[in-house]
Amino acid sequence: MGRTTPLSHLLLSCLLLVDLGNLAQAEPIKIGLNYPRTGNYKDEGLELRRGALLAVDEINQAGGVLGKPLELLSKNTSSQADKAVSNVDYFANQDARMVFGGATSEEAIAAGQRARERGLLYFATLSYANEVTGLAGHRYLFRESNSAWMSARVLGEYLSWHMPRQRYHYIIVDDAWGRSMENALRLATNSTDRARHGRTALPSGLVRREQYLAALNKAARSEADILVLVLLGENLQRSMRMVHNMGLKQRTQIIVPNLTKSVVQQAGPLVMEGVIGTEAWTWNLPSQDNIAQGQQFVERYISDYQEYPGSTSASAYSIVKQWADAVQRTQSLDSERLISTLEDHSYQLLKGQQQWRAFDHQNVQSIYAVRVRKRDDVMLDPFKQHYFDIIHHMDGDQAAPSQDEWQQERGEELQLR
Questions:
Q1: What is the DSSP letter of 202?
Q2: Residue 272 falls within a domain, yes or no?
Q3: Would 172 be classed as within a structural domain?
Q4: In terms of domains, do 266 and 390 share one?
Q5: 237 lies in which domain range?
Q6: Assigned domain for 85 exists
Q7: Residue 204: its pLDDT value, please?
Q8: Of 47, 69, 405, 411, whose CB has the highest number of CB atoms within 10 Å?
Q9: Do residues 336 and 119 lie in contact, with contact meaning Cβ atoms separated by under 8 Å?
Q10: Measured distance CA(355)–CA(353) in Å, rounded
Q11: Residue 249: which CATH number?
Q12: How far is CA 158 from CA 161, 164, 322, in A?
């Protein structure tokens, strides 16, 4: 009993070919990816697209969604909100049923609003400002990435335990995320006194060398114990190379609240070693926590790209898989029905338990404080990309703002609309 004959194998193969043939002939279901192919965050954009393509391919190999194949449409935003908005219109005109992506909070807020006007769900990535699911939040906007509050709380707890009563200096990019992250981390580290804990605000977009230099010289003169760089993408890479060349790491602990694999990869582990920040996911977490689907994702990514996936790829991959799962559970592409299906839905995919929280549509998940490993240790790894040691973690419910805190930020509008 239970043994299959050669004829059985042949019949199964024929059925599989028929199913795949039917899938290929069916009208595809389109989804749209907003991603920065050029500009300050182009390295993160590459990771977003890779993660999305991997999810689409897996879903199609498993039979698609509602018996139809998924098709990924992608458009460059150059990390500009106006381009992200026009891309949403393009996707909607191409009959896309969902849009996701972005590398700045301004993109997420503007594109999310436009998606709502076009009746489409928008899932934000790399958009850390509290406003995304706070003051600017609405029913059609979901955020998979963590908020500034979540990063600040895990960092604040770690720093208060291990580096108490230190003098801070902040260098921020003057945009929604930069201001949000600075305010949250000041509260979490008791560094709200700006006379003692100074700052420099750099303009959004790419910054000139003399602006970096003036900001870093000011930080050096402050004699701060901890230098917080609220920067991402090429801005962070360039400033970190200058920090390294100036020798600031020898006398100051560098904090980068939101680290990504691509930043360490592009700046180099020697430049980044010892830097402390946060990550929502690292490639070795699934193996440590015995998460089978996470391990399969890592193995597939390595097979396709000959390198480890970062949290950026994991975020895009998870969004596509979660949206497709909601469509399958709902048996519908209707945005209103999908919102109800997603709200308060708990799941496990690439890490431990996660939830799409109903009252603000924030993805609640564990957050990790990480330190960039020494270059010599990184070089021992087969891919030379084992960049992070996890030094602290916090459960999502503890890290995310409570409903009372969320409502205080919202003011009179106490529900998503």
A1: E
A2: yes
A3: yes
A4: yes
A5: 149-285+368-399
A6: yes
A7: 85
A8: 47
A9: no
A10: 7
A11: 3.40.50.2300
A12: 5, 9, 31
**Residue 362: φ, ψ to 5°:** -85, 135
pLDDT at 205: 73
Are 236 and 350 in the same domain? no
**Distance between CA atoms of residues 215 and 20, nearest Å:** 58
Q: 232 with 260, same domain?
A: yes
According to the model, what pLDDT value does residue 25 have? Answer: 76
Give the C-alpha separation, 236 to 231, whole Å: 5
Same domain for 358 and 380?
A: no
Domain count, the chain: 2
Rounded distance, CA 77 to CA 42, Å?
A: 10
For the chain, give the percent of residues with pLDDT over 70. Answer: 94
Q: Cα-Cα-Cα-Cα dihedral of 94, 106, 313, 159, to 10°? A: -170
Taking residue 226's Cβ as centre, other Cβ atoms within 10 Å add up to 19
Q: Are residues 173 and 244 in the same domain?
A: yes
Give dist(CA 215, CA 236) in Å, integer.
13
Q: Is residue 112 within 8 Å of 43, Cβ to Cβ?
A: no
pLDDT in tens, 299-354: 999 999 999 999 999 999 999 999 999 999 999 999 999 999 999 999 999 999 99
Distances (CA, A) of 207 to 32, 60, 106: 30, 42, 18
User: What span, in angstroms and rounded, lies between the C-alpha atoms of 70 and 64?
Assistant: 6
